[in-house]
Amino acid sequence: MTLLQVRDLRTQLRRGREVVTAVDGISIDIAPGETVGLVGESGCGKTMTGMSVMRLLPPHGRISSGSVLLAGRDLTDLPEREMRQTRGRDVAMVFQDPMTSLNPTMTIGKQIVEAVRLHRRASAAQARDRAIEVLGLVGMPQPDQRLDSYPHQLSGGMRQRVMIALALACEPKLLIADEPTTALDVTIQAQILELLEELRDRLSMGVLLITHDLGVIAGRADRVLVMYAGRIVESGPTKELFAQPRHPYTEALLGAIPRLDQDKDEELRSIPGLPPDLAHPPAGCRFAPRCAFATDRCRTDDPALTGGAHGYACFHPRPAKRAAVETVTRSKDARAAAEPGQPLLELVDVHKEYPVSGGLLWRRARSLKAVSGISLSVTEGETFALVGESGCGKSTTGRLIVGLDEPTEGTISFDGETLGARRMRMRPKDMQLVFQDPSASLDPRMKVGASLLEPLVLQHEGGRRDRISRVEEMLDQVGLPRGALDRHPHEFSGGQRQRIGLARALMLRPRLIVADEPVSALDVSVQSQVLNLMKSLQRSMGLTYVVISHDLSVVKYLADRIGVMYLGKIVEMGPAARIYQQPAHPYTAGLLEAIPEPDPDKERAKAKKLIGGELPSAMDPPSGCRFRTRCAHAQDLCAAEEPPLRPIAGGQLTACHFPLREPYTAQAKAVPAA
Amino acid sequence: MTALSTPSRGFRKSAAILSARGGLVSGVVLSVLVLLLVVVAVFPGVLAPGDPTASVGGAFAAPDGSHWFGTDDLGRDVLTRVVWGAHPILLASVAGILISTVIGVSLGLLGGLARGFVSGLVMRALDVMLALPALLIALMVVAIVGTGVTSVVIAVGVAYIPAFARVVYGSVQRLRTADFVAAARLFGASRPRTVLRHLLPNLATEIAVVASSAIGWAVLTAATLSFLGFGVALPAPDWGVDLSSGGQYLETAWWISTFPGLAISATILLSNYLGDYVGSILDPRRTVRVRRPWLPS
Fold first, then answer.
1. Residues of chain A found within 8 Å of residue B294, distances taken between Cβ atoms
2. The model's pTM
3. CB contact (8 A) between residue B1 and residue A14
4. Which one of A92, A390, A391, B155 has the lowest number of neighbouring Cβ atoms within 10 Å?
5. What domains are there in chain B, each with its CATH number?
């Protein structure tokens, strides 16, 4: 029996004088207790599909044809009044950002009570009991006390739990989860996905899981639908689809993600070009303009979704038995063999505290300890990565290194020279920063040419003609057309903007680049392009990178050495390969465990040992080991004494009293830490 | 670097930008109206060749073919007076707003960029000014510097300083922590350069929008001041003065006050539309989004 049966759904949006067909004839079946994953790049119509099922389209949109049968009832022609009753009672939705989808002026209890009483005849007291019940169900500690909290008093993970509780208040038969964990940290993401799965089984709900993250899909979905330009291009059981993708798009998407077992000398696959504008989709196969296997037929005829349980819409499917995928392997890095030289960058016991003003009456001087005593050194030519959850101080460290902020204590030296205080700290020609969001880091009013020229002008480098030729050279190097110079940043796609950001950072030919989440704002297909570019630029220009990221797969692909940060401290540091293979700190191990990998077998085999709880406040961090509040191995010693960063085998350093692997030597030299 | 374009290409490009961002038709209509107002203010003789202070016939003549707006209590042509009256009031408001833009933007930048005491001092002073109605401030200024067109210019200029300063202050707070400002610092940009090259261009839209709408408020303030007798003295033509002097004949000769009044209202409306329009065409990110309900296809 199917719970949801979508047939030939077509949703159109009006955009000026044009009509955009965001969803173009797609069909979905979901059985009770089943999770169906819907993946695709941004702008491919995933969210509009969910919104169409809910009939929550924007005012300029409408379902133009097709049917949405929920338990046999067609939702497309229900009167609005009945649709309102259906929403919440039969089908509910969880959105990406729980901060904007919860009402900030109402307590969470009130919001859940409201949802309950809209659909059930319940007294205020009964509804309140139900609210406590569902909050308990989603793992909210002390639900009866939490009822009176406002959304802003909760953490992101807790808010998403509330959002799920709200959706589940009336036990819907179908739950649509639209990027439910995209805004959350990886450890919290694992908790929420686990929770969704558990609730699905308990309530035998059907779940439509919409996401761009193939790793999330691999572990959680029973079946997968791959969406491209408003169409389903491939569908099938998760294991089969991941093992033998037949559509070139699916194959390319899978190839674009750096995996944990990725060979670092292998170029990531990337998909050239951009998805088509859905107001004017190309004739024939919509993927044809970006497809390496497209023939003339693909450009004229439109392939239909065929092939039974594992269906695909392609005239030239990839072979079912996969030959070894040819990959471009770069020449092994020469620098990898080079002797570790003089450290280019060195941080010694660096602290950064931000004063926090308290309430009006109690002006107790409190401070937020963003970075509390980290020491590290980066050798010329290597890539050092700082990883950790949001709020662990990694971005602050990046700002301290380039000189946008002053350390409260400790020293930072570059090329053997200790950098002075105040303004003198910045060394434009030596160090540059690549920002996370290129649309925020490029002046929206400045043409790209002017933005790229600015560093040269400010540093009085070269004459006018020389400057222009350097800008043009740089454009070639990052793979942008010369015509880009005369345009504004908003005229470019996210990936192109990040190329511009990289180009600008490289204009002064710095030796060290600090890249703060350089690809996390980008789609996977574009992400791989930027990662490849970063690697090739490193080789051609001999750059040293400090990469800051929460994405451990990206870090694994880029980094030679890694520092894992937790609440302002480095808890583990060492060669990337060692850290990934044999993490010694329980936090690193948990973090690695939590990354969703695009491999259904691995994902399902994972022991569900999650890092519980959430990051404590950096205003008063826990005594002793800061991780102890979330650590499964914590003992009394951990609360009493702070573990120093000690060397263990393989050049790894770990700050833990009870590391997962034995300390290196009996003498256990303590490295000067805090 | 800059694309050299022939005039016709440039024109076509601007036309395309206009129609994409603000609507070409409303742009043409607005430009014609603004141009008309400018001509009226600068060359009143072109549209109304007569002498605004001379009697042209009987007093209190109702509007007809020869005197479209009728005549006033002294037999002067109301149309001629309305045309000639545009000059002092528009001069006062445009010049006044120019003054408040320059001072207001500077104070806003100072308040937003300085730290601690200076910023606090500037912003609290502006708060005090904001707490008083603009008209009251204008009256206080006139009380100090005396009457006359120059005083009205100064009064309007002072009265609208806080409006600009507040808008700029708010945006500076937002922009000073923007990534692109940090990026400029990392390339070694000095503070003044960051302000000139990065902050001001990004503030330009907001300033232009506030300025074009503020002209409307300023017209009202200037008209009120002359209505109360602090601006142009009779018999010189002025919308505020005429509005006031015609008031006593409203029951018998409605046209004497009504036409200057209509001129004031029309100018304010025009200025408001201009503000919206300027806002939409100056933003490079903006293309017009038509929010029409779905039409069955």
1. 14, 59-62
2. 0.80
3. no
4. A390
5. 82-297 (1.10.3720.10)
